[in-house]
Amino acid sequence: MKLVIDRFEGKFAVCVQEDHVINIPRYKIPIEAKDGDCIEMENGFFVVRKEETEDKRYKVKKFMDELKKKNKC
Questions:
Q1: Distances in Å between the alpha carbon of 72 and those of 62, 65, 68?
Q2: Are 26 and 14 in contact (CB under 8 A)?
Q3: pLDDT for 56 beyond 80
Q4: Phi/psi of residue 62, each to 5°?
Q5: Which comes out higher in pLDDT, residue 70 or 62?
Q6: Contacts (Cβ under 8 Å, ≥6 apart) of 39
Q7: Which of 15, 28, 56, 69 has the most C-beta neighbours closer than 10 Å?
Q8: Is 38 left (phi over 0), alpha (psi -120 to 50) or beta?
Q9: CB distance 14 to 6 below 8 Å
Q10: 48 burial level (CB within 10 Å; 0-12, 13-18, 19+)
Q11: Rounded distance, CA 48 to CA 32, Å?
């Protein structure tokens, strides 16, 4: 199950999977995890998928840069 951490609210990580929102207890998420990280269940534990997270962050940054260029015209 692949998820993206949207935010943390109290003792929960609010995660998104396509069009579903899932609240996962914070203690089940790796301590180094932060907003925007891609996580996945592996052997009963959630792990941060660093490469996938970096790839998604790069794509979002590139998209935002393109939007900024279009708005300048």
A1: 16, 11, 6
A2: no
A3: yes
A4: -60, -45
A5: 62
A6: 2, 3, 4, 5, 15, 29, 30, 33, 46, 47, 48, 49
A7: 15
A8: beta
A9: yes
A10: middle
A11: 8
Place of tokens 């692949």: 2
Query: What is the average per-residue pLDDT within 22-36?
Result: 96
Q: Containing H/E element for 59?
A: helix 50-72
| pLDDT for 71 | 81
Instruction: Name the nearest CA neighbour of 53 among 9, 15, 21, 19.
Output: 15
Q: Is the pLDDT of residue 73 over 80?
A: no
- Ordered by start, the domain boundaries in the chain are 2-72
Two structure tokens written together for 54: 């970096």
**Contact, 34 vs 6, CB < 8 A?**
no
